């Protein structure tokens, strides 16, 4: 019933907005803990689309930190970083962190900054939003990361280059076995579309614009629809 209500809310919102919500799993592929983002690359075509990272790799303790093609495992100046979210236990708690994409014309590269007990970035825990199909491809980025001489722990920063978050990593309870939704799904970034889900908006530590906060609520509606669960 909750699913049906949320889904119809989304259908209304989708008709009004072209932005997409894409889920990226952090440290988990098909229910198994791995040093990966899943999917590792996504295409975002509409400004103000959102990408939500679900930290549910168990066990896991990862970050999503913006880097550059040139230096895959080092923070980009002015880049975002989610901070670490440790997971230990199949039932969570897990983490969610949502970016709103403001530039869909430039690739956004990111990595996991965890280095304990091993370095995740060089092991392939990197990702990209809108990587080029030729030249500086995602495969080339992974190869560069694998031989990175320097890996840096950045501090937590909500706003990045071409993308920003309005809230810190929030706690949620997503079934550990649920897999990525396989790309994107149209959803509501609109206030009216999200108004049915008053509970669950992640607490916001900084809020550059009210629209960004509304976007976070829209995502909660999306999550509820995608997983049929209550979001904390
Ligand atoms: C998660 O990793 C960070 C960085 O290595 C570390 O400082 C923190 O203590 C870890 N948290 C847990 C609960 O292991
Ligand atoms: C993303 O775009 C690239 C071209 O830049 C394309 O090769 C790839 O298939 C696209 N991926 C998806 C999931 O649409
Ligand atoms: C994106 O959101 C910002 C802030 O709400 C708004 O000013 C801008 O017009 C939006 N752009 C698009 C293409 O929807
Ligand atoms: Cu990691």
From TrEMBL:
<dbReference type="InterPro" id="IPR052953">
    <property type="entry name" value="Ser-rich/MCO-related"/>
</dbReference>
<feature type="region of interest" description="Disordered">
    <location>
        <begin position="177"/>
        <end position="207"/>
    </location>
</feature>
<keyword id="KW-0732">Signal</keyword>
<feature type="compositionally biased region" description="Low complexity">
    <location>
        <begin position="195"/>
        <end position="207"/>
    </location>
</feature>
<protein>
    <recommendedName>
        <fullName>Cupredoxin</fullName>
    </recommendedName>
</protein>
<feature type="signal peptide">
    <location>
        <begin position="1"/>
        <end position="18"/>
    </location>
</feature>
<dbReference type="InterPro" id="IPR008972">
    <property type="entry name" value="Cupredoxin"/>
</dbReference>
<feature type="compositionally biased region" description="Low complexity">
    <location>
        <begin position="177"/>
        <end position="189"/>
    </location>
</feature>
